[in-house]
Design goal:
By secondary structure, the chain is of the alpha+beta class. It has two domains: about 150 residues, PurM-like, N-terminal domain (60s Ribosomal Protein L30, Chain: A), CATH 3.30.1330.10; about 170 residues, Phosphoribosyl-aminoimidazole Synthetase, Chain A, domain 2 (Alpha-Beta Complex), CATH 3.90.650. It contains nine helices and 13 strands. The strands form three sheets. It has a seven-stranded mixed β-sheet. A four-stranded mixed β-sheet has the order 1-6-4-5. α2 runs parallel beside α4 and α3 runs parallel beside α4. The protein binds magnesium ion. Magnesium ion binds next to α3. Magnesium ion (MG) binds next to α3.
Length: about 350
């Protein structure tokens, strides 16, 4: 006969197993339901999570913007954020870049068997806090579980929709010679913070990711209507890549001044040490803005009033030639071509 003392131990083992994701959590059955109720609904509950086959939404009139992004960052928790916060910010910022006010988001998770439930809870709560800050609602989602070894912890996809107000039309094709170029803060923070954490590097001043949802920036820029020509968030490939994309799409030449581009000392120093260039490092809470020259100073002053964009700067100007190219005036006064990112810089940073 089994000694009675074994029973509590077995119970404890079952409980421990349940503190991690099991294949059954992705079965679509009872345990899936439990996972949704206890983790996702508990963190996000809103009246639009009706648990139908689709979310049913009322949309205001206007043009709809839609954007999707998948997040495979490693590590999942990093200085300045985590994959949950990042998965909201990434999609929100892509909507904001198109002039849209973010309204609703879907979230989809691919989770590796054995993933700690405590980490999943932290990620779901972080998504809830960020979404609430923006005023965007998480209205539908999906959860899949794959066998241990078939994924790396957790991957998240978010899709967002937003409405573009009347009079807003941000497109590279509207960028013309004479326009000014603004960046909304320090360049390279996210990419360097992730890289430093992976390499186990520490600095006197910690390198923090700039991961942030730029909804306030969107509210501010929307007041400037047609004066804003185009916006793009310098994520993978960094500022250099965004400038090259716009130069090509608009068929214009771009000149920037290295001394005008804000880069934190800790980031510059760490980049020098690692042989990296902060202008190619990813940001997750910054925007590049192309604006009418006459409004540039006023927009810069408005950006200076917002906490997320108080270190904004005008970094350069648009010219008719050399079309499709970006030139940078170095600190020493020389001019060189600032090319597009070639190859993979730092993998899995978002
Ligand atoms: Mg983008």
């Amino acid at each position: 006969m089994q000694p009675i003392t074994d029973i509590p131990r077995r119970k404890e083992e079952v409980k421990m197993k349940q503190e991690r994701i099991l294949m059954a959590h992705g079965s679509g059955g009872l345990m899936s339901q439990q996972l949704i109720d206890e983790i996702f609904k508990a963190a996000w509950n809103n009246e639009l999570m009706e648990m139908l086959d689709s979310a049913i939404l009322n949309l205001p009139a206007g043009r709809l913007a839609m954007s999707t992004d998948s997040f495979v960052i490693t590590p999942l928790f990093f200085p300045g954020g985590d994959i949950g916060k990042l998965s909201i910010c990434g999609t929100v910022n892509d909507l904001v870049a198109c002039g849209a006010k973010p309204l609703y988001m879907s979230t989809a998770f691919i989770i590796e068997e054995g993933f700690p439930l405590s980490d999943l809870r932290k990620i779901a709560e972080s998504m809830a806090v960020t979404a609430q800050e923006v005023g965007v609602k998480l209205v539908t989602g999906d959860t899949k579980v794959v066998e241990k070894g078939s994924a790396d912890g957790i991957f998240i996809n978010t899709t967002g929709i937003g409405i573009i107000p009347e009079g807003i039309n941000y497109r590279p094709q509207r960028v013309k010679p004479g326009d000014k170029i603004i960046v909304t803060g320090y360049m390279g923070d996210h990419g360097l913070a992730i890289m430093a954490q992976r390499e186990g590097l520490s600095f006197n001043t910690p390198a923090l990711s700039d991961c942030a949802p730029l909804y306030q920036l969107g509210q501010m820029t929307s007041q400037y209507g047609q004066a804003i020509k185009c916006m793009r968030d310098p994520t993978r490939g960094g500022l250099a890549t965004v400038l090259n994309e716009i130069a090509r799409q608009a068929g214009v030449g771009i000149r920037v001044k290295e001394s005008s581009i804000p880069v934190l000392e800790v980031i510059r120093g760490a980049c020098d040490m690692l042989g990296m260039d902060p202008l190619y490092m990813a940001n997750e809470g910054k925007m590049v803005i192309f604006t009418d020259a006459e409004k540039a100073d006023e927009i810069l002053a408005e950006l200076g009033k917002l906490s997320q964009t108080q270190n904004a700067a005008i970094i350069g100007e648009v010219y008719s030639d050399p079309a499709g190219m970006v030139l940078i005036e170095t600190e020493l006064g020389a001019e060189r071509i600032l090319g597009m990112l070639e190859g993979e810089h730092v993998p899995r940073i978002c």
